[in-house]
Amino acid sequence: MFILTIMWSCKSKRMFYLAGVITARLWAGAAVLADAPPVGAQDKLNAFHEVTGGHYQVLAQSGQTAAFEVNRYMNLMLGQYSKFFRNWSQKHPARVVVFEKPSHFGEYAQHVAGLSHHNLAGFCHRRTDTDGVQYFELVACQNQDLYPVLAHEGFHQFIYYELGNITPIWLNEGMAQYFETAEVVNQKLRVGRVSRKKLLQAQSILGSVHRLSIEQLISMDKPTFYRQASRTYPLAWALTHYLMEQDPRRYPNGAVQKYIRDLQRGRDPVACFWTRFGRDREKLNRLFAAYVMRLQP
Ligand SMILES: [Zn+2]
Fold first, then answer.
1. Neighbours of ion ligand 1 (CB under 5 A)
2. Residue 117: what pLDDT?
3. What's the CA-to-centroid distance between 257 and ligand 1, angstroms?
């Protein structure tokens, strides 16, 4: 049996109570969630196996081992994101739900978040418990993409600690995809690995009449971005990759870090983009396209 340390420091009495209940249940070796989830849908999660430790309560449909592994991974990634972005702010408890059955995942996504895209791989949303305390819930499906999806959704949770809800949508989705391929090597996050699938998509879009300029991408509002997901996601990933990998100073000393600091100061995200990454828009579009076209998976 592994030893769990509950580090939750949420002020909510209910959260402390939950933490206590969960610890006791783990020590007893039990695996089934007996406490009702804060917002409905408990019928979907009643039989899930639970492991809680560090910052995460993990509910896995397939078993205790999966719940344990996901819990370990999520805590590892949250620590790595904190280190990468030098963000040592308090991270509140969050919940991760991993479905084994795709149909149950789809029903849950529809039920709790109103999401019904047929190619939805996971999602991260904020929920409110019965005491009015907000927490993140990350939801994914157990398949070969589980860990990239968890890294992706975990980034959406993490960026909230950096920028709250002002993160430009292209940056949020671009960075989340950028970190999908991250690996922890010698306790450091190794980033920048290129997914062949994403690269081919980005190259195909940039080479077609349906290409978007950087101006169009960074000025888009969320609904427009999501409506055009087949173009915006690959391009947001490619733009993030370009900005992160081309800068010789690298994060946290380069232009991306300065851009994030600008956003934290409430500056205009589009105006700051050009200030930080290049005022000559035509040149930047050209350099970006050339970079993507010669990138190798
Ligand atoms: Zn995302």
1. 173, 176
2. 84
3. 20
pTM summary value: 0.85
CATH entry 3.10.110 includes domain 23-166: no
| Cβ–Cβ under 8 Å, residues 218 and 269 | yes
Distance 34 CA to ligand 1 centre (A): 30
- Residue ranges of the domains in the chain? 23-166, 195-294
Å from CA of 20 to ligand 1 middle: 32
| 39 Cα: distance to centroid of ligand 1 (angstroms) | 22
Q: 3-state class of 184 per DSSP?
A: strand
pLDDT digits (tens, 9 = 90+) for 277-291: 999 999 999 999 999
**Burial level of 31, CB count in 10 A (0-12/13-18/19+)?**
middle
Confirm if 75 and 55 have CB atoms less than 8 A apart. Answer: yes
Tell me how far the alpha carbon of residue 149 lies from the centroid of ligand 1, in angstroms: 9
Distance between CA atoms of residues 140 and 59, nearest Å: 11
Confidence (pLDDT) at 41: 59
In this model, does residue 165 exceed pLDDT 70? Answer: yes
State both tokens at 169. 């949508």
- % of the chain with per-residue pLDDT over 90: 75
152 CA distance to ligand 1 middle (Å): 6
Q: What residue type is 182 in one-letter code?
A: A
> If you measure from the C-alpha of residue 28 to the centroid of ligand 1, how many angstroms do you get, rounded to a whole number?
36
**Contact criterion met (CB below 8 Å) for 241 and 202:** no
Q: How far is the CA of 179 from the centre of ligand 1 (A)?
A: 11
